[in-house]
Structure formats: C-alpha cells, structure tokens
Design a protein that fits this description.
By secondary structure, the chain is mostly helical. It folds into four domains: about 55 residues, no CATH class; about 50 residues, Arc Repressor Mutant, subunit A (Orthogonal Bundle), CATH 1.10.10; about 30 residues; about 35 residues. The chain is built from ten helices and three strands; from the N terminus they run H-H-H-H-H-H-E-H-H-E-E-H-H. It has a three-stranded antiparallel beta sheet. The protein is elongated and about 90 Å long. The two termini are about 65 Å apart.
C-alpha cells in the first residue's frame, strides 16, 4: 500500500529483534536513499524470503523513489533528469522521465518537465495564508456551528408561555397525568379486542 508503519510498532519489546530488518527498510524508505535500500534488501534477503515478504519489500522501491523525489523537489528549483537518475540510482533517463512524469501526474511532486532540455522545474510553493482560503474555511466552520446551535434550540422543549402561577413541578404532574390517561385509553382499547 506504500504506507509507512509508525515507530511504535517497532519499539515493542517482544518485536524489536525480529523486526529490526523491517525497521531499517522503513527508515531507508523515509529517507529516499535507493542505494541504501538496495543494500538492505540484499543484506536481509534471506530473512525476507524466510518470512515470505520479499516481494512486498521489493515493492517498497516505488515508495523509496517517491520520498526521494519529494526531497529533490523541495531542495531544487531546477534539476536535470540525469542528476535525478544519479541521486535516485535509477537505470536510465527514459525510466527517470517516466517516473517523474507519473509522480507529477499523481500529485506527489509539483513540477514541470522540459522534455527538450531534459530537466524539471519545481513550481513555487504558494503561501496559503496569503489567499482567502483560511477565511473561507473559518466561515464554513462558523456557519456549521451556528446551524448546529439553531437546530439544538429548535429541538428543545419549552414550557407553555402562559404563566398562571404554576411551577415546573405542576407541569410535570400534568404531563404524567396526560400520559396516564393515554395509557388507560390504550389499555381499554386492547381489552375490547
């Protein structure tokens, strides 16, 4: 799935030793270092084979590339595809261009590829607080809270408006009497059957 497990999974006392190779793979995936990833897969290949997880670990290659591309996109405003290939340890410029294009399409990185000059240009990060988006979000939340309040007020049951000296205890007694009358009439109807 490409999801990185939390560190707490690996810190459990009973699992620390058996999960050590997996912890190293996860740490490597987060760093985006393909050379270290290949080295770890080779080193622990027998362990992964024994655990029947080798194919899953090998599929993490795409996650390592994704994290590596994110780091490159943040670090460089403009970089050649050859430099990306070298940094990620990919095999060809065509593969690199394909991977970068897919990452752009999937929204992993925010960049543009110049196919003629063989480089990518990272798009500048916009400051969301310079826009009206936070104001619109706050407005939507306030409207939701106000609607919730209004619905709660409408759902409340208020005592009758006329005040003829009765306190709330009298109202409860009246209500109980009405319920008893309704229950008695229902019982009479059932007895008729």
């Amino acid at each position: 799935m490409g999801e990185i497990p939390s560190r707490q999974v690996f810190n459990h006392v009973d699992y620390q030793k058996p999960l050590q190779p997996y912890f190293q793979i996860v740490s490597c995936a987060k760093s985006g270092d393909m050379d270290k990833f290949r080295q770890l897969v080779t080193t622990f290949e027998e362990t992964f084979r024994k655990d029947k997880t080798l194919s899953l670990v090998q599929r993490l290659r795409h996650t390592v590339i994704k994290f590596g591309l994110k780091k490159i996109n943040i670090s460089y405003s403009k970089i050649s595809l050859q430099d990306i290939r070298k940094k990620l340890g990919l095999e060809s410029d065509e593969e690199t261009e394909h991977i970068v294009a897919k990452a752009i399409r999937d929204g992993v990185i925010d960049a543009v590829i110049n196919h003629d000059k063989q480089w990518i240009s990272s798009l500048s990060l916009t400051d969301v607080y310079a826009s009206n988006e936070p104001q619109h979000t706050l407005d939507r939340r306030i409207k939701f809270c106000m609607q919730l309040h209004n619905d709660a007020v409408k759902a409340r049951v208020y005592p009758p408006k006329e005040d003829d000296g009765k306190d709330f205890g009298d109202l409860d007694e009246e209500k109980d009497q009405k319920e008893d009358d309704i229950l008695a009439s229902l019982m009479e109807e059932m007895d008729d059957f």
